Amino acid sequence: MGVPISTDTIRAMFLARLSAMCKSEMPRYRAMTELVARVNADVLAAHPECAKRETSAGDGAGLAIERHGAVRVGTAGELVLLRRLFAVMGMAPVGYYDLSVAGLPVHSTAFRPLAEAALRESPFRVFVSLLRLDLIPEAELRDEVTEILARRSLLSPRGLELLDQFEGAGGFNEEQAREFAGEATEAFRWRPDATVSIDVYRRLHAAHPLLADIACFKGPHINHLAAPTLDIDAVQRAMRIQGFEPQEIIEGPPRRRCPILLRQTSFKALAEPVAFQSPGGGQATHTARFGEVEERGAALTNEGRALYDRLLSAALTNSIENSSSSNAAGYEQELARQFEAFPDDYAELWVKELAFFRYRAMGEGLPSGRLRTPTSIESLLAEGYLSIEPILYEDFLPASAAGIFRSNLADRMAIGNLERASRQSFESALGCAVIDPLSLYSEVEAASLAASLKALDLPRTPPRRNEPTGSPLA
């Protein structure tokens, strides 16, 4: 096989090709990334330390590459194939997202790197949604879609051959890795030739636009890539001024001094011409691809997510009930008002255990005799022996994902009264369990604290964060 190439390197190869393809095929997306780069440069010129919010590289080099993309598949077999494909790139399924709550007939996971070192090497991840065909009420339509999807293959014969080689040998050499990255990119290319007649397309589109998008084409075209930014509000304003037609609101939490979770916006999906098969032939337009921008903040604990979800729900409810808050500006004002109840200070977030933090030892150890004094995490922080920084949120928000999806559908159609999705049924289709994202953040926090205590010559079990200052490390 030769010298093996790391899965992180393969992932970076894939992203480079995917990004180049999208920028070549969508000049509007290329222009958006250039706009985002200008905003990031302005922020860094004024506040160089802001780069630490998005990347561990303080110079902001990581801001030049996209952080995520999204695709949709139609069957369990296609989902399993993508699981195998992304495993070649060191990506595993993390989190379960039920989008039926927003009237969308899909449920999802995110394939992403797990280790911090892998995320630093190449932070790219892919949000993958699986069609819930059971939510389409017409049995005849379900059967037709099943037959259509059974006829297609997501990877070329050569791509499948390379995938089998990787799994058999346990890796790729550089030549194989480059070829595989090319084959994987082709699997997600937009192809404007539908695999069905225009009449079939119209029937599926009438049932739900996502159904037509998933079932009527040769493969799971990448529907967007997301560029990272240090100031998504500035990007939103610039997109409006320059005629990009961004969505009405920024999805996620409001602007804060201490960013949390994930904020997202996008320009509206392009109406692209599609040629249809006989009988009838003909052309129409399909809205499939768009450009997205993301800004990430601190990962929240269970308690933090519960508070976030409660405040977001209140903002949505009050905006609907109050006619003066029915527009985008009114919603944003209500959102900001509700989130006044969410602490906007990292020290308070730490004390109240609302967010995950990484610990760092300051110096090489405690002074001689320091252990004779009862010691707590709080006192170590207060005296400067420990420091904390928020752990970056690496995952997604179901309400935000649904908002982005719906804002980019031709008619924003939703199916009413959907039966809630089942994580168990998704995992059955996937062929494995999805990983709990909170467990990953918890492990990073615990490992950083253990390493810091060891560096301070305190290899002991720490107390809970909220124990009174002065409690012993026992």
Largest sheet: 7 strands, mixed
CATH class of the largest domain: Alpha Beta
Report how far the terminal alpha carbons are from each other.
51 Å
* Structural class by SSE content: alpha+beta
Q: What's the number of structural domains?
A: 3
Helix content: 40-55%
The CATH superfamily title of the largest domain: Uncharacterised protein PF07063, DUF1338
CATH architecture group name of the largest domain:
Roll
Keywords:
43% helix; seven-stranded mixed β-sheet; two-stranded antiparallel ribbon
Describe the structure.
This protein has 474 residues and is of the alpha+beta class. The chain contains 17 helices and eleven strands. It has helices at residues 7-25, 27-46, 76-88, 116-121, 139-150, 157-169, 174-187, 198-207, 209-215, 232-241, 302-321, 328-338, 346-351, 377-382, 398-407, 423-430, 437-455, and strands at residues 68-73, 92-98, 106-112, 125-131, 224-228, 262-266, 271-275, 283-287, 290-296, 357-361, 386-390. It has a seven-stranded mixed sheet with strand order 2-3-4-1-5-9-6, with helices on both faces. A two-stranded antiparallel sheet has the order 7-8. Helix 2 packs across helix 10 (232-241) and helix 3 crosses helix 16. The model is unreliable at 54-60, 411-418 and 466-474 (pLDDT under 50).
Q: What is the element layout, followed by pairings?
A:
Blueprint: H1 7-25, H2 27-46, E1 68-73, H3 76-88, E2 92-98, E3 106-112, H4 116-121, E4 125-131, H5 139-150, H6 157-169, H7 174-187, H8 198-207, H9 209-215, E5 224-228, H10 232-241, E6 262-266, E7 271-275, E8 283-287, E9 290-296, H11 302-321, H12 328-338, H13 346-351, E10 357-361, H14 377-382, E11 386-390, H15 398-407, H16 423-430, H17 437-455
Parallel strand pairs: 1-4, 5-9
Antiparallel strand pairs: 1-5, 2-3, 3-4, 6-9, 7-8, 10-11
